[in-house]
Here is the input.
Amino acid sequence: MSRILQPASERHAETHPLTWRLHDDESPVLYDEYRATQGYDAVIKALEKFTPESLTDEVKAANLRGRGGAGFSAGMKWSLTMKGEGVPRGYIVCNADEMEPGTFKDRLLMEQQPHLLIEGMILAGYANRARQGYIFLRGEYHLAAASIQCALREARANGWLGPDVGGSGYDFDIALHTGAGRYICGEETALINSLEGKRANPRAKPPFPGQSGAWGLPTVVNNVETLCNVPGIINHGVDWFQGFSGGQSTDGGSKLYGVSGKVKQPGLWELPMGTTGREILERAGGMRDGLTLKSWLPGGGSTGFLLPEHLELALDFDTIGKAGSRMGTGLLTVVADNQSMVSLTRNLEEFFARESCGWCTPCRDGLPWSVKLLRALEAGEGESGDIELLEQMARDLGPGKTFCAHAPGAAMPLASAIHYFRDEFERGITRPRGEAHADPIPVGSV
Amino acid sequence: MTDMNTTATIASDAFVLDPADREAILEERAHYPYPQAASIEALKIVQKRHGHVPDGAIPAIAETLGIRVADVEGVATFYSLIFRQPVGRHVILICDSSSCFLTDYEELRDAFIEHLGIQMGQTTADGRFTLLPVCCLGACDRGPAILIGEDLHGPVKPAEIPQLLEGYL
Here is the structure.
């Protein structure tokens, strides 16, 4: 039950490729309507005019960057996937485990337009010579599950899935796999383990999933929004996709941006990649009356805090990266002037501590420790040295210290909150450093 | 392998897998190249009928799928939405992630605790409600958001709780 806040009259095929079919009343776009509005045209075109290699090249040339948050080129990922003579056909897995705090975009696409995702997966499957697709959907998305199941039946009944897709001789089907909680399932190798029916611990890389993924076969994991961009690229071409932002960004295509927090009108908008944070916030009507913006997260709990002055920046992967944060999922979480950065950081680190899978020591033990320190600061019972210790922990939780990006994701808001709002943390220090200092507390107690 | 891998050593609470559930589990199994992949779905099938996953269901699922008991137990203890103890007829999942935190989820949580007279993680004495935290429900534009059973609600104001819960008997 997400909402796109642009009315249908403002959304068109070439300007709003992800959302132009969506209804103002939020009812799903079913098969007949989807097919009557260019739906599955991209599959017909791809099967007729593209080889798997040339389709991969097309997506690579379009510079479609992963919308799950990492921003890695989808075409590059596909080109690095083993395929061809003598290589067993593998899997396309859609990462629909949307659980990044502050992110509610994939829900919209799956609930209201599941055929676009299916079409994107068929194209990805063809490009990667996959034998089967899986949609890994978080268990709490009940409406999306019903919508996808209905669309899969419709697609099968109309020959878009099954032994002979679109009459081409290419065989491909998709199954829906629903999860049972745990944020770590969104990490692509943890997701593969979970898909295999195992505990969702990430895997060591290499080998990357493109070499050895689900059940040891080449596997491509792409986010929902990423896959939903592929039909538009095939229908309208690489130049259209690259020119989408009108020069405001080097990244191609449109983006589902959103805002949550204490704004007048939280919601989602499909806008050209590289739209500024300022424009997105204005679409949300600005802060609620009486509040002013203190800080914001550009795209989820694992991105770094930014300041109001950064609202002028283009919200794309490179620009926000240069500003010291990450665009992540591109859905802004805004913090008002009367909200405590220490409390919010504590809330975020509690989340990451609880959701750690427990495999790597810095993550499993470090995150609960950071929560303990933050709680003390929040209660005004911090000791001198606590902030420096938190900074050290943020470094020790950074990239390269653990098997996956969970701990580095947790370190980003922690380090940036201290960087920009150190005075708020300092106000929590009321005691000299004692002998027994903030020992790690057991897992599970936060 | 160890004794953990045989059904005989697992304390059974005389659990009998419902034939319809067994059928549903075998249908799920057909979606994957290996049966272990259906284990999470199997746990969810059992949970849908019983409200939670009784200990005796673990060897029953293992046997149905032809996989090791320890592997089923492993996933049954990892995933937060698999309940290993009885829960209320309606599980209330309160989102406690950043966007709901910033839209006053703590007030809402405290109001639920007060209204129901239980702490987070507990079940009301009449077996009607269980309160649990959940990570970001992906309804940040409607924070603070909660999920009751399969129903998403938000934004929820503390004063609306009594009326909201009337629909869940």
Chain B touches chain A at residues 31-41, 43-44, 67, 71, 74-75, 78-82, 93, 96-99, 101-103, 134-143, 147, 150, 152 (CB under 8 Å). The first strand of chain B starts at residue 90 and ends at 95. Chain B has two domains: 3-76, 90-166.
